[in-house]
């Protein structure tokens, strides 16, 4: 092994001599480079080669190249690049080749190698490497695109790029990415031809018919037609071609053809009308003022309305409403924003008369009225929403909040307001599944805490009998509420009642322990009772509970407490399961060190 390492190090001597001679590195720095390379070479020449060893060597050589570049700028010396940088680049290429040979299925390594060759302008070698990679991984569409892009952008060979993409299509006839990139490539080629012709305009050149069609991007139009033949019923796929062709001024006729074809082949599709309606906005210039923008939006509205006449579906209304909401969020002058808001509200109302609005659209409708200060109108819409989506917790919650908001603080204290809220709350919890109704119970509790405190405990007791999703968090809150408002004795009574009424969470017991410990004189027996109750339910998977209990006993500094600590330690190791035993032992060790 040593002879191979020595041979490889001797091959680096010419470049190191040049580096030292021209003053890029000192003798000590050169020795350091040799020492580092020696260590890396020995790692590469072991019986079992590791990927990380190659990557470390490559990273070292790349960093050396960066340092050489900085030193050249510092001393203003830019000669001998073929003797210095070229030798290092060749060495990195060899390392990459060995690495890719050892791990041929790792595309990341291949692509990193290609990127390195591109950075150092090794285009010939890069093309060879991509060709080799394609032979090994022809099933990856992105590699075909990479190969074609290399031929077009770096080798300036559109014919080879076209051949590669045609081969890719034969391998992947349903790949949308390949079809769109082929379309883009043809347009880019036509763009470059147009640029060349612009330079030669002063000459008396005449164009043949084929050349004129190339300049207009007719080949791209052919690609589009073949693509939709291969993938006929995908509207977003067709719109990708339109989005690409919009970036080229000379391809406007292709964009028009795409939209016309879309309207001819899929006139009943909602996505078709959405694309046609949004198109006028893409034709706006960057310097368009608000008046022009609003006129353009009105043209979009007209197309949406035409679409609704032919396709009056829920999806079509949703697309129209979504478009109006997007435009409203853009802001602008007050007049324009008011016009957009007015149109959105009228459209939502019209849509509700024809189809059933989604929860999102009802929410949008209510929010729009609330932002305008029209609470009564928002409440009326909330009634429609809860009628239309009677099982929706979000709609009932919004309905409750709006009705509460309708009353002023003075009105909220009245019996009529309380009765109206309670009746609406009862309707909500009876219609919404209990496991989804937590937000509704929270709204009811908030109301009672503010305006009807006599019903607070009624709410808590009713909620504790609901589904676990409601009962568990409400039991925790109930304890704290009673402790603050009714005293410790009442809290303990409520705790004894709730703990036997399953389910109870570990946080419920921790809340009880916290409330006991916050007293001026903590009751040790009550704390032990709470810990024992918690461990009875969760002792098999909560090492933290055992550690807290042990810590509490240790802090008492009594003989009986020390005996309890030993018993608790033994019980914990017997009760805990799996990985929780190790967690407990680690925590217990740290606890003993801190005491």
Summarize the structure.
The protein is mainly α and 595 residues long.
Question: Describe it for me?
Answer:
By secondary structure, the chain is mainly alpha-helical. Among the domains are: 464-535, no CATH class; 539-595, no CATH class. Helix content is 77%, strand content 0%. It has helices at 2-11, 13-21, 27-44, 51-75, 85-102, 107-119, 123-136, 141-153, 158-171, 176-199, 209-215, 218-230, 235-245, 252-265, 270-282, 290-310, 314-329, 334-354, 359-371, 375-388, 393-406, 409-412, 415-431, 438-451, 456-463, 468-485, 488-499, 506-517, 524-538, 543-555, 559-575, 579-594. Helix 4 (51-75) packs antiparallel against helix 5 and helix 6 (107-119) packs antiparallel against helix 7. The radius of gyration is 37 Å and the shape is flat. The two termini are 57 Å apart.
Layout: helices, strands, pairs:
Blueprint: H1 2-11, H2 13-21, H3 27-44, H4 51-75, H5 85-102, H6 107-119, H7 123-136, H8 141-153, H9 158-171, H10 176-199, H11 209-215, H12 218-230, H13 235-245, H14 252-265, H15 270-282, H16 290-310, H17 314-329, H18 334-354, H19 359-371, H20 375-388, H21 393-406, H22 409-412, H23 415-431, H24 438-451, H25 456-463, H26 468-485, H27 488-499, H28 506-517, H29 524-538, H30 543-555, H31 559-575, H32 579-594
Question: Key terms for this structure?
Answer:
595 residues; mainly alpha; flat
Distance between the termini: 57 Å
**Helix and strand composition category:** mainly alpha
So how many helices? Answer: 32
CA gyration radius, whole angstroms = 37 Å
What is the residue-averaged pLDDT? Answer: 88
Beta-strand content = under 5%
């Amino acid at each position: 092994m040593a002879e191979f390492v020595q041979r490889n190090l001797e091959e680096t001597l010419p470049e190191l001599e040049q580096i030292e001679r021209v003053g890029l590195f000192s003798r000590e720095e050169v020795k350091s480079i040799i020492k580092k390379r020696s260590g890396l070479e020995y790692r590469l020449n072991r019986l079992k080669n590791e990927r990380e060893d190659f990557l470390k060597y490559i990273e070292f050589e790349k960093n050396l190249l960066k340092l050489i570049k900085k030193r050249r700028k510092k001393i203003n010396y830019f000669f001998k690049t073929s003797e210095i940088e070229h030798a290092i680049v060749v060495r990195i290429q060899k390392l990459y080749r060995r690495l890719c040979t050892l791990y041929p299925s790792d595309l990341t390594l291949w692509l990193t190698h290609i990127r390195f060759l591109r950075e150092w302008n090794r285009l010939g070698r890069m093309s060879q490497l991509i060709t080799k990679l394609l032979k090994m991984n022809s099933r990856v569409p992105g590699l075909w695109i990479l190969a074609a892009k290399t031929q077009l952008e770096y080798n300036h060979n559109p014919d080879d790029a076209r051949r590669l993409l045609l081969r890719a299509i034969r391998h992947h006839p349903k790949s949308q990415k390949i079809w769109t990139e082929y379309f883009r490539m043809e347009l880019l080629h036509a763009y470059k031809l147009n640029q060349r012709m612009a330079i030669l305009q002063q000459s008396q050149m005449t164009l043949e018919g084929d050349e004129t069609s190339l300049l207009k991007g007719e080949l791209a139009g052919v690609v589009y037609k073949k693509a939709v033949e291969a993938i006929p019923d995908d509207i977003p796929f067709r719109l990708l071609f339109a989005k690409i062709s919009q970036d080229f001024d000379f391809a406007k006729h292709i964009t028009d053809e795409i939209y016309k074809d879309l309207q001819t082949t899929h006139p009943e599709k909602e996505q078709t009308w959405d694309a046609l309606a949004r198109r006028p906005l893409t034709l706006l210039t960057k310097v368009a003022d608000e008046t022009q923008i609003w006129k353009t939006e009105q043209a979009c509205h007209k197309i949406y309305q035409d679409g609704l006449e032919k396709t009056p579906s829920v999806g079509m209304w949703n697309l129209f409403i979504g478009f109006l909401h997007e435009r409203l969020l853009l802001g602008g002058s007050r007049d324009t924003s008011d016009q957009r808001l007015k149109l959105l509200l009228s459209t939502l109302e019209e849509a509700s008369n024809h189809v059933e609005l989604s929860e999102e659209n009802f929410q949008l409708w209510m929010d729009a009225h609330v932002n305008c200060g029209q609470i009564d109108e928002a409440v009326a819409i909330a009634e429609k929403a809860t009628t239309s989506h009677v099982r929706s917790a979000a709609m009932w919650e919004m309905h409750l909040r709006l009705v509460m908001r309708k009353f002023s603080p003075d009105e909220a204290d009245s019996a009529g307001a309380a009765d109206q809220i309670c009746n609406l709350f009862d309707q909500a919890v009876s219609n919404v599944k209990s496991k989804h109704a937590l937000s509704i119970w929270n709204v009811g509790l908030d109301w009672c805490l503010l305006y009807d405190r006599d019903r607070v405990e009624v709410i808590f007791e009713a909620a504790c009998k609901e589904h676990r999703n409601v009962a568990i968090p409400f039991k925790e809150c109930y304890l704290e509420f009673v402790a603050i408002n009714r005293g410790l004795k009442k809290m303990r009574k409520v705790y004894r009642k709730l703990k036997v009424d399953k389910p109870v969470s570990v946080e419920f017991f921790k809340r009880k322990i916290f409330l006991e410990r916050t007293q001026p004189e903590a009751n040790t027996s009550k704390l032990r009772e709470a810990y024992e109750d918690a461990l009875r339910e969760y002792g098999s998977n909560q090492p933290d509970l055992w550690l807290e209990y042990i810590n509490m006993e240790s802090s008492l500094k009594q003989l009986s407490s020390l005996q309890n600590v030993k018993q608790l330690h033994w019980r914990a190791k017997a009760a805990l399961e799996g990985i929780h035993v190790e967690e407990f032992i680690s925590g217990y060790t740290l606890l003993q060190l801190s005491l």
